Fold this sequence. Notes:
By secondary structure, this protein is of the alpha+beta class. It has 4 helices and 14 strands. The longest helix is centred in the last third of the chain and has 17 residues, at about 195-210.
Amino acid sequence: MEQDYKLRFSKPLLKVNNVSGRLPDFCRYPVPMANRARQFDFEGATLLQQTIHCELFEIDIFQLDTVDPFVVHYTLDQQRIFFNFVLSEPIAFTTGTGEHVTRPGSCSFYLSAEQAGRYRAECLSGATDLVIISLNPQWLSKVVKQYPIFREAVSFLTESTNPFDVLPHFRIDQELCQWLFSVLAFEHENPLPSRQSCRNTLLWVWDIMHSC
């Protein structure tokens, strides 16, 4: 499975285990629908990554528990659009050269675009939970054509020549959080969402964002 972004870490990696189908007891948000789950162990830190992958999008659910601040470096080979859901501590995102991108607060979500390049995410000590929905810009542009508000936002992101763009942050209310994890809680034998359901999911989230 090819991931949309390549990860590197600020601490030496001691061990990585495939935990698909046997998530550790400390997993806060188990996702039965995930195609893959990996546990990365470091000195004083553990990172759990669950991934749902299909041709239209990729969802990663990251759970980090660390005794010290922890930095994740990631590289994009091409432009991607992201829905980002920060479920716990704030995260500071910068470029590889240290230029500030955004710092979403606790329990917030937002839409962003990043061009090919290197970036980093700095997490505080303690527990961090992050859901990232990575979207193909060309596909997203096609499915929002009849929705003027969403189309305008997506056009701004896809046509921009900036290295990165971030739309406003919104607070995750209880309804949205429950919806998000009910979507991710399908059983393994259930098929992945169809193109139509993917589109409807994104538009539903956008409607909530626009009403905030």
